Amino acid sequence: MKNGPCLFILIAVFFTSCGDYKATTNSKSSSSAISSASLVAISKQKLEDSEADVEQVTQELPTSPVSAQGWKLVFEDNFEGAQSAIAKGVDPSCFNRSPVCMINWWGSEECLEHKSNLADLNKCTWNVYKYYNYMDFEAAEGAGVNSFHPSMVKVKDGYLYLNAEKSFYTTKRCKQKFNDPRLGNLENYSMECPIISGGIESKKIDGKTPGYQQEFGRFEVRAKLNNGPGSWPAHWLLPQNTAENGCGWPYSGEIDIMESWANGSDSVSGTLHSGDCEKKIKLSKGFSWKAKEKFYPELTYSQRQETFYKDFHVYAAEWDKDKVRFLVDDNYIGQITMGDIIKNKNTPRGGLPDKIPSGPFYWILNTTIYSSTKEPLNTDNFTKQEHIIDYVKSYRKCTDADNPASCYQPSYKNTDALCPGIREYLGDFQGKSMCEAWPNFSISVAHCFGNDGVIDSQNKWCLQNEGTWYKARTLGEPCTWPRAHFGWNAGKPVCSAIPNFKIKKSNCTGDGGTIWNTYCIWGEDGWWRARDLRD
Questions:
Q1: Which of 116, 312, 341, 409 is the most exposed place for a label (fewest CB within 10 A)?
Q2: Contacts with 384 (C-beta within 8 Å, 6 or more apart), sequence order
Protein backbone atom coordinates (compact mmCIF):
# COMPACT_ATOMS: atom_id res chain seq x y z
CA MET A 1 0.00 0.00 0.00
CA LYS A 2 2.40 2.68 -1.16
CA ASN A 3 0.48 5.92 -1.70
CA GLY A 4 3.32 8.38 -1.24
CA PRO A 5 3.20 9.91 -4.76
CA CYS A 6 -0.51 10.54 -4.35
CA LEU A 7 0.14 12.60 -1.23
CA PHE A 8 2.40 15.02 -3.06
CA ILE A 9 0.32 15.21 -6.22
CA LEU A 10 -3.04 15.97 -4.68
CA ILE A 11 -2.78 16.39 -0.94
CA ALA A 12 -5.65 18.91 -0.92
CA VAL A 13 -8.11 16.18 -1.81
CA PHE A 14 -6.76 13.58 0.59
CA PHE A 15 -10.04 11.90 1.34
CA THR A 16 -11.31 11.71 -2.21
CA SER A 17 -8.24 10.13 -3.79
CA CYS A 18 -5.09 8.21 -2.86
CA GLY A 19 -5.92 4.55 -3.40
CA ASP A 20 -6.55 2.67 -0.17
CA TYR A 21 -7.05 5.92 1.75
CA LYS A 22 -10.14 7.07 -0.12
CA ALA A 23 -13.65 6.82 1.29
CA THR A 24 -15.19 3.62 0.00
CA THR A 25 -18.94 3.64 0.64
CA ASN A 26 -21.82 6.05 0.11
CA SER A 27 -19.47 8.92 -0.69
CA LYS A 28 -21.25 12.19 -1.32
CA SER A 29 -19.81 14.82 -3.62
CA SER A 30 -18.72 18.00 -1.93
CA SER A 31 -20.64 19.99 -4.55
CA SER A 32 -24.34 20.60 -4.38
CA ALA A 33 -26.87 22.65 -6.28
CA ILE A 34 -27.79 26.03 -4.75
CA SER A 35 -31.15 27.63 -5.62
CA SER A 36 -31.37 31.15 -7.07
CA ALA A 37 -33.40 32.30 -4.06
CA SER A 38 -30.67 31.07 -1.73
CA LEU A 39 -28.02 32.92 -3.70
CA VAL A 40 -29.97 36.17 -3.53
CA ALA A 41 -30.38 35.78 0.24
CA ILE A 42 -26.74 34.99 0.69
CA SER A 43 -25.63 37.99 -1.35
CA LYS A 44 -27.49 40.36 1.01
CA GLN A 45 -25.85 39.08 4.14
CA LYS A 46 -22.86 40.65 5.80
CA LEU A 47 -19.78 38.52 6.20
CA GLU A 48 -19.45 37.57 9.83
CA ASP A 49 -17.57 35.11 11.93
CA SER A 50 -19.65 32.42 13.58
CA GLU A 51 -19.30 28.86 14.77
CA ALA A 52 -19.90 26.04 12.33
CA ASP A 53 -23.29 24.40 12.39
CA VAL A 54 -21.93 20.88 12.81
CA GLU A 55 -23.31 17.60 14.09
CA GLN A 56 -21.30 16.81 17.19
CA VAL A 57 -20.47 13.56 18.91
CA THR A 58 -20.82 14.17 22.62
CA GLN A 59 -19.27 10.95 23.89
CA GLU A 60 -15.70 11.26 25.18
CA LEU A 61 -13.29 9.62 22.77
CA PRO A 62 -11.24 6.87 24.41
CA THR A 63 -7.54 6.30 23.96
CA SER A 64 -7.49 2.59 24.81
CA PRO A 65 -7.46 -0.26 22.26
CA VAL A 66 -10.46 -2.19 21.03
CA SER A 67 -12.89 -3.49 23.64
CA ALA A 68 -11.47 -1.42 26.47
CA GLN A 69 -13.82 -3.17 28.87
CA GLY A 70 -12.35 -6.53 27.94
CA TRP A 71 -13.89 -9.85 26.99
CA LYS A 72 -16.21 -12.17 28.90
CA LEU A 73 -15.49 -15.88 28.47
CA VAL A 74 -18.67 -17.67 27.37
CA PHE A 75 -17.35 -20.97 25.99
CA GLU A 76 -14.20 -23.03 26.33
CA ASP A 77 -12.96 -26.54 25.80
CA ASN A 78 -9.58 -27.35 27.33
CA PHE A 79 -9.66 -30.95 26.10
CA GLU A 80 -8.78 -32.20 29.58
CA GLY A 81 -10.70 -35.45 29.21
CA ALA A 82 -13.98 -36.76 30.57
CA GLN A 83 -12.97 -37.23 34.21
CA SER A 84 -11.59 -33.70 34.69
CA ALA A 85 -14.38 -32.04 32.71
CA ILE A 86 -17.12 -33.85 34.63
CA ALA A 87 -15.45 -32.86 37.92
CA LYS A 88 -15.78 -29.23 36.80
CA GLY A 89 -19.48 -29.59 36.09
CA VAL A 90 -19.76 -30.82 32.51
CA ASP A 91 -22.72 -33.15 31.99
CA PRO A 92 -21.43 -36.78 32.03
CA SER A 93 -23.80 -37.64 29.18
CA CYS A 94 -21.72 -35.43 26.88
CA PHE A 95 -18.97 -38.05 27.09
CA ASN A 96 -21.11 -41.16 27.33
CA ARG A 97 -23.22 -40.48 24.25
CA SER A 98 -22.38 -41.91 20.84
CA PRO A 99 -20.28 -39.70 18.59
CA VAL A 100 -21.86 -38.13 15.52
CA CYS A 101 -19.84 -38.45 12.33
CA MET A 102 -20.31 -36.09 9.41
CA ILE A 103 -20.42 -38.08 6.16
CA ASN A 104 -20.28 -34.94 4.01
CA TRP A 105 -20.86 -31.23 4.63
CA TRP A 106 -24.46 -31.70 5.74
CA GLY A 107 -25.13 -35.43 6.20
CA SER A 108 -24.41 -37.23 9.47
CA GLU A 109 -24.77 -40.53 11.27
CA GLU A 110 -23.93 -41.97 14.66
CA CYS A 111 -20.64 -43.85 14.53
CA LEU A 112 -20.74 -46.27 17.47
CA GLU A 113 -17.56 -47.99 16.35
CA HIS A 114 -15.58 -44.89 17.39
CA LYS A 115 -17.17 -44.40 20.81
CA SER A 116 -14.14 -45.87 22.57
CA ASN A 117 -11.37 -43.83 20.92
CA LEU A 118 -13.50 -40.66 21.24
CA ALA A 119 -14.47 -41.27 24.88
CA ASP A 120 -12.72 -38.08 26.08
CA LEU A 121 -14.20 -35.81 23.41
CA ASN A 122 -17.16 -33.67 24.49
CA LYS A 123 -19.76 -34.96 22.06
CA CYS A 124 -22.36 -32.39 23.11
CA THR A 125 -20.14 -29.85 21.38
CA TRP A 126 -18.22 -31.63 18.65
CA ASN A 127 -19.10 -33.66 15.57
CA VAL A 128 -16.32 -35.66 13.92
CA TYR A 129 -15.51 -35.72 10.21
CA LYS A 130 -15.67 -38.99 8.31
CA TYR A 131 -15.69 -38.26 4.59
CA TYR A 132 -13.56 -37.39 1.58
CA ASN A 133 -11.78 -34.10 2.31
CA TYR A 134 -13.29 -31.60 -0.14
CA MET A 135 -10.48 -29.20 0.77
CA ASP A 136 -8.07 -31.46 -1.11
CA PHE A 137 -7.94 -28.55 -3.57
CA GLU A 138 -9.26 -29.37 -7.04
CA ALA A 139 -8.02 -32.92 -7.43
CA ALA A 140 -9.56 -34.72 -10.37
CA GLU A 141 -12.11 -37.42 -9.65
CA GLY A 142 -10.23 -40.52 -8.59
CA ALA A 143 -7.04 -38.53 -7.96
CA GLY A 144 -7.63 -37.29 -4.40
CA VAL A 145 -5.12 -37.93 -1.63
CA ASN A 146 -6.87 -37.10 1.67
CA SER A 147 -9.98 -37.99 3.63
CA PHE A 148 -11.11 -37.28 7.19
CA HIS A 149 -11.30 -40.23 9.56
CA PRO A 150 -12.41 -40.34 13.23
CA SER A 151 -9.40 -42.44 14.20
CA MET A 152 -7.23 -39.35 13.62
CA VAL A 153 -9.06 -37.42 16.38
CA LYS A 154 -7.80 -37.99 19.93
CA VAL A 155 -8.04 -36.25 23.31
CA LYS A 156 -4.97 -37.10 25.36
CA ASP A 157 -3.03 -35.48 28.24
CA GLY A 158 -5.03 -32.25 28.04
CA TYR A 159 -4.71 -31.78 24.28
CA LEU A 160 -6.77 -32.39 21.16
CA TYR A 161 -4.81 -34.19 18.44
CA LEU A 162 -5.87 -33.84 14.80
CA ASN A 163 -3.25 -36.06 13.20
CA ALA A 164 -2.47 -37.00 9.62
CA GLU A 165 -1.07 -40.43 8.69
CA LYS A 166 -0.81 -42.93 5.89
CA SER A 167 -4.15 -44.67 5.79
CA PHE A 168 -5.00 -48.32 6.37
CA TYR A 169 -7.05 -48.48 3.15
CA THR A 170 -5.79 -50.99 0.63
CA THR A 171 -8.12 -49.86 -2.16
CA LYS A 172 -7.40 -46.91 -4.42
CA ARG A 173 -10.89 -45.45 -4.36
CA CYS A 174 -10.29 -41.83 -3.36
CA LYS A 175 -12.73 -39.18 -4.59
CA GLN A 176 -14.86 -41.42 -6.73
CA LYS A 177 -18.56 -40.57 -7.04
CA PHE A 178 -21.17 -42.98 -5.79
CA ASN A 179 -24.84 -42.81 -4.85
CA ASP A 180 -24.85 -42.74 -1.07
CA PRO A 181 -27.93 -44.48 0.45
CA ARG A 182 -27.26 -42.60 3.73
CA LEU A 183 -28.01 -39.38 1.86
CA GLY A 184 -31.08 -40.63 0.06
CA ASN A 185 -28.93 -41.89 -2.82
CA LEU A 186 -27.49 -38.46 -3.46
CA GLU A 187 -23.96 -38.26 -4.84
CA ASN A 188 -21.04 -38.51 -2.44
CA TYR A 189 -17.33 -39.21 -2.82
CA SER A 190 -15.49 -42.32 -1.68
CA MET A 191 -12.99 -41.81 1.15
CA GLU A 192 -10.55 -44.70 0.69
CA CYS A 193 -7.62 -42.31 0.34
CA PRO A 194 -3.86 -42.80 0.86
CA ILE A 195 -3.74 -40.14 3.63
CA ILE A 196 -6.27 -39.73 6.45
CA SER A 197 -6.49 -36.82 8.88
CA GLY A 198 -8.63 -35.43 11.70
CA GLY A 199 -11.33 -32.76 11.76
CA ILE A 200 -14.16 -31.70 14.09
CA GLU A 201 -16.88 -29.05 14.09
CA SER A 202 -19.38 -27.56 16.55
CA LYS A 203 -22.32 -27.30 14.15
CA LYS A 204 -25.74 -28.00 15.60
CA ILE A 205 -27.21 -31.20 14.18
CA ASP A 206 -30.90 -31.31 15.07
CA GLY A 207 -31.68 -34.20 17.38
CA LYS A 208 -28.04 -35.30 17.51
CA THR A 209 -25.57 -32.60 18.60
CA PRO A 210 -26.34 -29.27 20.31
CA GLY A 211 -22.94 -27.97 19.18
CA TYR A 212 -21.81 -24.41 19.85
CA GLN A 213 -22.64 -21.31 17.80
CA GLN A 214 -22.04 -17.61 18.49
CA GLU A 215 -22.56 -14.29 16.73
CA PHE A 216 -19.73 -11.77 17.20
CA GLY A 217 -17.00 -11.86 19.84
CA ARG A 218 -13.41 -12.99 20.24
CA PHE A 219 -12.60 -16.51 19.03
CA GLU A 220 -9.32 -17.96 20.20
CA VAL A 221 -7.30 -21.17 19.71
CA ARG A 222 -3.97 -22.09 21.28
CA ALA A 223 -2.27 -24.65 19.08
CA LYS A 224 0.90 -26.20 17.73
CA LEU A 225 0.52 -26.74 13.99
CA ASN A 226 1.44 -29.71 11.85
CA ASN A 227 4.04 -29.23 9.15
CA GLY A 228 5.47 -31.24 6.32
CA PRO A 229 4.57 -32.26 2.76
CA GLY A 230 1.01 -31.20 1.93
CA SER A 231 0.23 -29.78 5.40
CA TRP A 232 -2.71 -27.39 5.72
CA PRO A 233 -4.00 -26.96 9.29
CA ALA A 234 -6.92 -24.56 9.82
CA HIS A 235 -9.12 -23.04 12.54
CA TRP A 236 -12.19 -21.37 11.12
CA LEU A 237 -15.83 -20.33 11.51
CA LEU A 238 -18.85 -20.94 9.28
CA PRO A 239 -22.47 -19.76 9.61
CA GLN A 240 -24.89 -22.21 11.17
CA ASN A 241 -27.50 -21.22 8.57
CA THR A 242 -25.56 -20.78 5.34
CA ALA A 243 -28.62 -20.68 3.10
CA GLU A 244 -31.08 -18.67 5.17
CA ASN A 245 -30.55 -15.64 2.96
CA GLY A 246 -30.78 -17.74 -0.19
CA CYS A 247 -27.11 -17.22 -0.94
CA GLY A 248 -25.10 -20.01 0.69
CA TRP A 249 -21.31 -20.13 0.77
CA PRO A 250 -19.31 -17.90 0.67
CA TYR A 251 -21.81 -15.03 0.46
CA SER A 252 -23.03 -15.63 4.00
CA GLY A 253 -19.42 -15.48 5.21
CA GLU A 254 -16.43 -17.53 6.32
CA ILE A 255 -13.87 -16.40 8.91
CA ASP A 256 -10.53 -18.20 8.70
CA ILE A 257 -8.87 -17.49 12.03
CA MET A 258 -5.70 -19.36 11.09
CA GLU A 259 -4.43 -21.23 8.06
CA SER A 260 -0.91 -22.43 7.33
CA TRP A 261 0.48 -24.15 4.27
CA ALA A 262 3.44 -26.44 3.68
CA ASN A 263 5.11 -23.88 1.40
CA GLY A 264 5.19 -21.26 4.19
CA SER A 265 6.10 -22.93 7.46
CA ASP A 266 7.21 -19.65 9.07
CA SER A 267 3.94 -17.86 8.36
CA VAL A 268 0.21 -18.11 9.05
CA SER A 269 -2.79 -16.26 7.64
CA GLY A 270 -6.21 -14.92 8.64
CA THR A 271 -8.91 -14.34 5.99
CA LEU A 272 -12.50 -13.23 5.57
CA HIS A 273 -14.53 -14.69 2.70
CA SER A 274 -17.79 -13.08 1.62
CA GLY A 275 -19.34 -11.89 -1.61
CA ASP A 276 -22.08 -10.14 -3.52
CA CYS A 277 -25.05 -12.49 -3.46
CA GLU A 278 -27.01 -10.85 -6.28
CA LYS A 279 -24.03 -10.68 -8.64
CA LYS A 280 -22.64 -14.03 -7.45
CA ILE A 281 -19.17 -12.55 -7.07
CA LYS A 282 -16.93 -14.00 -4.37
CA LEU A 283 -14.82 -11.66 -2.26
CA SER A 284 -11.93 -12.41 0.05
CA LYS A 285 -9.29 -10.46 1.92
CA GLY A 286 -6.57 -11.86 4.16
CA PHE A 287 -3.40 -11.06 6.02
CA SER A 288 -0.20 -13.04 6.38
CA TRP A 289 1.87 -13.10 9.58
CA LYS A 290 5.53 -14.04 9.65
CA ALA A 291 7.62 -14.87 12.70
CA LYS A 292 9.90 -11.86 12.35
CA GLU A 293 12.63 -10.98 14.83
CA LYS A 294 10.88 -7.80 16.05
CA PHE A 295 7.89 -9.89 17.17
CA TYR A 296 9.86 -12.87 18.55
CA PRO A 297 13.26 -11.44 19.59
CA GLU A 298 13.94 -14.34 21.93
CA LEU A 299 14.11 -16.79 19.01
CA THR A 300 16.96 -17.37 16.61
CA TYR A 301 16.37 -17.26 12.87
CA SER A 302 16.11 -21.05 12.60
CA GLN A 303 13.78 -21.17 15.60
CA ARG A 304 11.51 -18.56 14.02
CA GLN A 305 11.36 -20.65 10.85
CA GLU A 306 10.01 -23.56 12.88
CA THR A 307 8.12 -21.83 15.69
CA PHE A 308 4.54 -22.32 14.47
CA TYR A 309 4.85 -26.10 14.37
CA LYS A 310 7.30 -26.54 17.25
CA ASP A 311 5.75 -24.10 19.73
CA PHE A 312 2.24 -23.24 20.86
CA HIS A 313 0.79 -19.94 19.66
CA VAL A 314 -2.55 -18.21 20.20
CA TYR A 315 -4.57 -17.53 17.06
CA ALA A 316 -7.62 -15.28 17.36
CA ALA A 317 -10.23 -13.26 15.49
CA GLU A 318 -12.29 -10.40 16.93
CA TRP A 319 -15.57 -9.95 15.08
CA ASP A 320 -18.41 -7.47 15.37
CA LYS A 321 -20.99 -5.96 13.02
CA ASP A 322 -18.46 -3.48 11.60
CA LYS A 323 -15.24 -5.43 11.25
CA VAL A 324 -13.15 -8.59 11.64
CA ARG A 325 -9.68 -8.36 13.15
CA PHE A 326 -7.05 -11.12 13.07
CA LEU A 327 -4.39 -11.67 15.73
CA VAL A 328 -1.44 -13.96 16.43
CA ASP A 329 -0.16 -13.97 20.02
CA ASP A 330 -2.23 -10.77 20.49
CA ASN A 331 -0.34 -9.08 17.66
CA TYR A 332 -2.81 -7.51 15.23
CA ILE A 333 -2.09 -8.75 11.75
CA GLY A 334 -4.90 -6.94 9.95
CA GLN A 335 -8.48 -5.76 9.88
CA ILE A 336 -11.36 -5.89 7.41
CA THR A 337 -13.98 -3.17 7.85
CA MET A 338 -17.51 -3.08 6.46
CA GLY A 339 -17.36 -1.36 3.09
CA ASP A 340 -13.65 -1.93 2.40
CA ILE A 341 -13.23 -2.07 -1.37
CA ILE A 342 -12.10 -5.51 -2.52
CA LYS A 343 -10.49 -5.91 -5.91
CA ASN A 344 -9.74 -9.30 -7.43
CA LYS A 345 -10.04 -11.05 -10.76
CA ASN A 346 -13.77 -11.57 -10.25
CA THR A 347 -14.77 -8.02 -9.32
CA PRO A 348 -15.74 -5.30 -11.78
CA ARG A 349 -13.34 -2.45 -12.34
CA GLY A 350 -13.14 -0.40 -9.17
CA GLY A 351 -13.91 -3.39 -6.95
CA LEU A 352 -16.84 -4.11 -4.66
CA PRO A 353 -17.50 -3.16 -1.03
CA ASP A 354 -16.87 -5.96 1.44
CA LYS A 355 -19.56 -7.15 3.82
CA ILE A 356 -19.10 -8.22 7.42
CA PRO A 357 -21.17 -11.36 8.10
CA SER A 358 -23.67 -11.73 10.91
CA GLY A 359 -25.61 -14.53 12.55
CA PRO A 360 -24.44 -17.51 14.62
CA PHE A 361 -21.23 -19.17 13.42
CA TYR A 362 -19.78 -22.52 14.51
CA TRP A 363 -16.22 -23.77 14.99
CA ILE A 364 -14.23 -25.95 12.57
CA LEU A 365 -10.81 -27.37 13.51
CA ASN A 366 -9.16 -29.59 10.94
CA THR A 367 -6.00 -30.92 9.35
CA THR A 368 -5.88 -31.18 5.58
CA ILE A 369 -3.22 -32.81 3.42
CA TYR A 370 -3.25 -31.70 -0.19
CA SER A 371 -1.29 -32.20 -3.37
CA SER A 372 -1.14 -29.34 -5.86
CA THR A 373 0.18 -29.35 -9.38
CA LYS A 374 3.12 -27.25 -8.20
CA GLU A 375 3.81 -29.48 -5.21
CA PRO A 376 3.07 -33.12 -6.04
CA LEU A 377 2.78 -35.26 -2.93
CA ASN A 378 4.59 -38.56 -2.52
CA THR A 379 2.00 -40.46 -0.50
CA ASP A 380 4.18 -43.56 -0.23
CA ASN A 381 6.76 -41.73 1.87
CA PHE A 382 4.32 -39.72 3.95
CA THR A 383 5.24 -39.49 7.63
CA LYS A 384 2.89 -38.76 10.55
CA GLN A 385 1.99 -35.12 11.26
CA GLU A 386 0.52 -33.84 14.55
CA HIS A 387 -1.76 -30.82 14.84
CA ILE A 388 -2.13 -30.25 18.60
CA ILE A 389 -4.73 -27.93 20.15
CA ASP A 390 -4.45 -26.84 23.78
CA TYR A 391 -7.78 -25.01 24.05
CA VAL A 392 -10.63 -23.31 22.19
CA LYS A 393 -12.30 -20.24 23.70
CA SER A 394 -15.08 -17.85 22.70
CA TYR A 395 -15.73 -14.48 24.34
CA ARG A 396 -18.30 -11.72 24.11
CA LYS A 397 -17.58 -8.05 24.76
CA CYS A 398 -17.89 -7.03 28.39
CA THR A 399 -20.46 -4.42 29.34
CA ASP A 400 -20.93 -2.07 32.28
CA ALA A 401 -23.04 -4.78 33.91
CA ASP A 402 -20.09 -7.19 34.09
CA ASN A 403 -17.73 -7.38 37.03
CA PRO A 404 -14.45 -5.98 35.67
CA ALA A 405 -12.56 -8.75 37.50
CA SER A 406 -14.34 -11.30 35.31
CA CYS A 407 -13.30 -9.61 32.06
CA TYR A 408 -10.16 -10.58 30.17
CA GLN A 409 -8.16 -7.72 28.65
CA PRO A 410 -5.51 -8.87 26.15
CA SER A 411 -2.20 -7.04 25.93
CA TYR A 412 -2.51 -5.97 22.32
CA LYS A 413 0.62 -5.51 20.22
CA ASN A 414 1.38 -4.34 16.69
CA THR A 415 -1.69 -2.10 16.79
CA ASP A 416 -0.33 -0.02 13.90
CA ALA A 417 -1.63 -2.79 11.65
CA LEU A 418 -5.11 -1.37 12.27
CA CYS A 419 -4.18 1.91 10.56
CA PRO A 420 -2.70 1.46 7.07
CA GLY A 421 0.30 3.38 5.88
CA ILE A 422 1.99 5.72 8.31
CA ARG A 423 -1.00 6.46 10.55
CA GLU A 424 -0.74 5.53 14.20
CA TYR A 425 -3.53 3.56 15.87
CA LEU A 426 -4.87 5.48 18.86
CA GLY A 427 -7.81 3.39 20.02
CA ASP A 428 -11.41 2.62 19.17
CA PHE A 429 -14.62 4.62 19.25
CA GLN A 430 -18.10 3.46 18.30
CA GLY A 431 -16.62 0.27 16.85
CA LYS A 432 -14.23 2.16 14.55
CA SER A 433 -10.47 2.51 14.58
CA MET A 434 -9.01 5.89 15.46
CA CYS A 435 -5.92 6.74 13.45
CA GLU A 436 -3.46 9.62 13.46
CA ALA A 437 -3.73 11.71 10.34
CA TRP A 438 -0.82 12.11 7.98
CA PRO A 439 1.92 14.16 9.67
CA ASN A 440 1.29 17.90 9.53
CA PHE A 441 -1.89 17.43 7.55
CA SER A 442 -4.95 19.31 8.78
CA ILE A 443 -8.26 17.54 8.22
CA SER A 444 -10.87 20.22 7.67
CA VAL A 445 -14.50 20.38 8.72
CA ALA A 446 -15.41 20.78 5.06
CA HIS A 447 -13.59 17.60 4.12
CA CYS A 448 -15.23 15.71 6.93
CA PHE A 449 -18.75 16.74 5.99
CA GLY A 450 -18.06 16.47 2.31
CA ASN A 451 -17.42 12.79 2.86
CA ASP A 452 -20.38 12.00 5.12
CA GLY A 453 -18.32 12.51 8.26
CA VAL A 454 -19.08 13.89 11.69
CA ILE A 455 -16.97 15.94 14.09
CA ASP A 456 -16.32 15.11 17.71
CA SER A 457 -17.21 17.51 20.50
CA GLN A 458 -13.64 18.80 20.85
CA ASN A 459 -13.15 19.46 17.12
CA LYS A 460 -10.18 17.11 17.07
CA TRP A 461 -11.58 14.05 15.34
CA CYS A 462 -13.27 13.47 12.02
CA LEU A 463 -15.14 10.23 11.29
CA GLN A 464 -14.97 9.53 7.58
CA ASN A 465 -17.46 7.25 5.88
CA GLU A 466 -14.79 4.59 5.39
CA GLY A 467 -15.36 3.74 9.02
CA THR A 468 -12.25 5.21 10.59
CA TRP A 469 -11.72 8.08 13.01
CA TYR A 470 -8.85 10.33 11.94
CA LYS A 471 -7.17 12.65 14.39
CA ALA A 472 -6.50 16.05 12.83
CA ARG A 473 -3.67 18.36 13.72
CA THR A 474 -6.16 21.22 13.31
CA LEU A 475 -9.86 20.58 12.98
CA GLY A 476 -11.30 23.97 13.85
CA GLU A 477 -11.20 25.54 10.42
CA PRO A 478 -13.37 24.28 7.59
CA CYS A 479 -11.22 25.32 4.63
CA THR A 480 -9.23 22.69 2.79
CA TRP A 481 -5.49 23.15 2.95
CA PRO A 482 -3.76 25.39 1.88
CA ARG A 483 -6.64 27.89 1.99
CA ALA A 484 -7.08 30.00 5.11
CA HIS A 485 -10.43 30.38 6.87
CA PHE A 486 -11.84 33.93 7.11
CA GLY A 487 -15.23 33.26 8.69
CA TRP A 488 -18.76 32.20 7.85
CA ASN A 489 -21.50 33.50 5.61
CA ALA A 490 -25.00 31.98 5.71
CA GLY A 491 -23.57 28.92 7.39
CA LYS A 492 -20.95 28.44 4.70
CA PRO A 493 -17.20 28.83 5.20
CA VAL A 494 -15.37 31.74 3.63
CA CYS A 495 -11.94 30.68 2.47
CA SER A 496 -9.02 32.30 0.72
CA ALA A 497 -8.29 31.17 -2.78
CA ILE A 498 -5.29 29.02 -3.54
CA PRO A 499 -2.23 31.29 -3.26
CA ASN A 500 -1.53 33.35 -6.37
CA PHE A 501 -4.73 32.15 -8.00
CA LYS A 502 -6.99 34.80 -9.48
CA ILE A 503 -10.72 34.04 -9.67
CA LYS A 504 -12.51 35.67 -12.58
CA LYS A 505 -16.17 36.64 -12.40
CA SER A 506 -16.75 34.59 -15.50
CA ASN A 507 -15.16 31.56 -13.85
CA CYS A 508 -17.32 31.95 -10.79
CA THR A 509 -20.66 32.26 -12.54
CA GLY A 510 -19.65 29.77 -15.20
CA ASP A 511 -19.28 27.10 -12.51
CA GLY A 512 -22.69 27.70 -11.00
CA GLY A 513 -21.52 30.27 -8.49
CA THR A 514 -22.28 33.88 -7.78
CA ILE A 515 -20.44 37.01 -6.64
CA TRP A 516 -20.63 38.62 -3.21
CA ASN A 517 -18.42 41.66 -2.74
CA THR A 518 -14.89 40.31 -3.14
CA TYR A 519 -15.93 36.69 -2.69
CA CYS A 520 -17.08 34.04 -5.08
CA ILE A 521 -19.32 31.16 -4.01
CA TRP A 522 -18.89 27.99 -5.96
CA GLY A 523 -21.17 24.99 -6.04
CA GLU A 524 -19.28 23.16 -3.31
CA ASP A 525 -20.95 25.09 -0.49
CA GLY A 526 -17.98 27.30 0.30
CA TRP A 527 -17.21 30.99 -0.23
CA TRP A 528 -13.82 31.46 -1.84
CA ARG A 529 -12.04 34.79 -1.44
CA ALA A 530 -10.25 35.90 -4.56
CA ARG A 531 -6.87 37.58 -4.55
CA ASP A 532 -8.16 39.65 -7.42
CA LEU A 533 -11.81 39.22 -8.40
CA ARG A 534 -12.01 40.79 -11.85
CA ASP A 535 -13.89 40.51 -15.08
A1: 116
A2: 163, 164, 165
